[in-house]
Design brief:
By secondary structure, this protein is mainly alpha-helical. The protein has 15 helices and no strands.
Length: 361
């Protein structure tokens, strides 16, 4: 039996095909070169998403029956994110040394690659029980997407009257029950040192650019190609993909649009799928009450499913099977490259200051 390809494997294959197959050359030549590069990366991810998850959009009954398992498999890793963030706070304060960590930017990489992170111990039963209690507590809040990254130290540690307003609700719940909140007040010794050298590097580069007065490159006047534009996607699919993939795209687009509709309608549609009575708390705003009821029910069901998800997690660990990454291979690699680039900038900054070209500071 042929092994099913992973999301990352599909994404990689699609990207390589788009980059090397001559059948696309005439089409891509009509558009700006820079936009084509981004289109290929975005389209590869979109096609992999359709092939991996698109059938669920066509079969919503299957989707609803498995949604709590899928959500549980993702939320499980929030436990590891919190443990990694605690480790980051201590490392920045120079309280501990970690051989695998060279700069603070390495924590962002491991945050993206959390399912493969070996810097922290595996999830244990007590931590699962704490997360289940969090889901059932009524204090659960989805993380704010523009911040979480989970390891975004500078944003998360920002305070307003000693309140960490940007801190994920899960982090606050953990600290309340495990008493780790003093970590948030530790000084960022290492981060401040790194940014000193990065600023020195930027200052040197600015002066060099002013001296050279580099001329601008010729402007590419061809139109842009966007994987975020439904018209561009459909035009490309009609020319190069089969009818089934186009149908998957249209069904998946409708499914996503439905998910982006007014949250009151989402809550109502979700509660309609439930075959049991769901209590709705008294609320002056009936819509807010509906949304709250749907959220609490979803949390309850995920908490109930988390034990099975944890069992599967432990079995994979025991068998030495790698866990499926949450983020795409492209995003993980991008974060690794950023961390490597920032390391090089810090070293350049040290050299410009007449110091050794290493990270021993």
């Amino acid at each position: 039996m042929e092994k099913k390809k992973t999301f990352s494997e599909i994404e990689k294959e699609v990207k390589e095909d788009l980059q090397t197959n001559p059948r696309y050359q005439d089409f891509f030549s009509q558009y700006s070169a820079t936009s084509v590069i981004k289109f290929i990366l975005d389209y590869a991810k979109k096609k992999a998403e359709l092939l991996e998850y698109g059938e669920r959009s066509l079969d919503s009954e299957e989707y609803y029956s498995l949604q709590f398992t899928y959500l549980g498999e993702r939320l499980l890793w929030e436990i590891q994110q919190k443990k990694l963030f605690n480790l980051q706070c201590m490392w920045r304060a120079e309280q501990i040394e970690i051989p695998e960590i060279e700069t603070t930017f390495d924590f962002s990489y491991w945050g993206k690659n959390i399912t493969c992170c070996t810097l922290i111990p595996p999830i244990n039963a007590d931590e699962i029980e704490l997360y289940k209690a969090y889901l059932r507590s009524g204090e659960y809040e989805p993380p704010v997407e523009w911040i979480c990254t989970w390891q975004n130290y500078s944003e998360l540690i920002e305070t307003d009257d000693d309140d960490f307003d940007n801190m994920p609700a899960w982090y606050i719940y953990w600290d309340t029950y495990k008493g780790k909140s003093p970590l948030l007040t530790l000084p960022d010794i290492r981060g401040e040192k790194e940014w000193y050298y990065i600023r020195k590097r930027h200052e040197h580069q600015r002066l060099e650019h002013e001296k050279k007065n580099i001329s601008a490159s010729p402007i590419d006047t061809r139109p842009m190609l966007y994987a975020s534009d439904k018209r561009d996607i459909i035009q490309f699919m009609q020319q190069f993909e089969n009818h089934k993939l186009l149908r998957l795209f249209q069904a998946h687009t409708m499914h996503k649009r439905r998910n982006e509709e007014d949250e009151t309608k989402q809550a109502f549609d979700f509660l309609r799928t439930i075959d049991e009575a769901v209590e709705i708390e008294a609320n002056n705003d009936w819509g807010a009450g509906l949304v709250r009821a749907a959220e609490q029910y979803r949390c309850k069901m995920v908490a109930d499913e988390l034990e099975n998800v944890f069992l599967s997690y432990c079995q994979r660990n025991a068998l030495g099977i790698l866990h499926t990454p949450i983020e795409s291979e492209r995003w993980i690699e991008s974060e690794r490259q950023i961390a490597q680039g920032m390391k090089e900038w810090i070293i350049e900054g040290r050299l410009f200051c007449g110091e050794p070209g290493d990270l021993n500071f």
